[in-house]
User: What shape does this take?
Amino acid sequence: MTNWPGRKACVAGVALLALLVSAHVRGDDAPVATITVTSATAGSTIGGQLVEGVMRFGDRDYLLTLHGVARSVTTRGSVYGLVRPRDIQGFFKPTDQGVKNASGVVIRFDPPLSLEGDRLEIEISGGMQPKVSRGQPGSGVE
Assistant: This one.
């Protein structure tokens, strides 16, 4: 193998280009789920308002409870990096991308959430199945 003087610089340049391309692709990924936040309870909890939201992932809706929101807000979140519904649970910290948890899930809220203590906790309160009308053909109740 010949010792090419610019080999190290070329390898470093290719590695940098690969890193930039992969970062660009990740930034352009489509969200895998959405969260709609439209309500808050009258009281507050430790670390801010108790806020409810609905996550749409695949063909199912999941009821979420958000802890640590500073005030009632109506917002929509785009969710990235979610593999399983339970990955949405946990503590989220603000980053330059949005809020991110230990599972690597990133949520970008628009408009952004105002957080108490720079920490958001999300829990799944329950899964909601699509509603089926009673008495309609194909619903099983005819």
Notes: Residues 10-27 have pLDDT under 50 and may be disordered. The first strand starts at residue 33 and ends at 45.
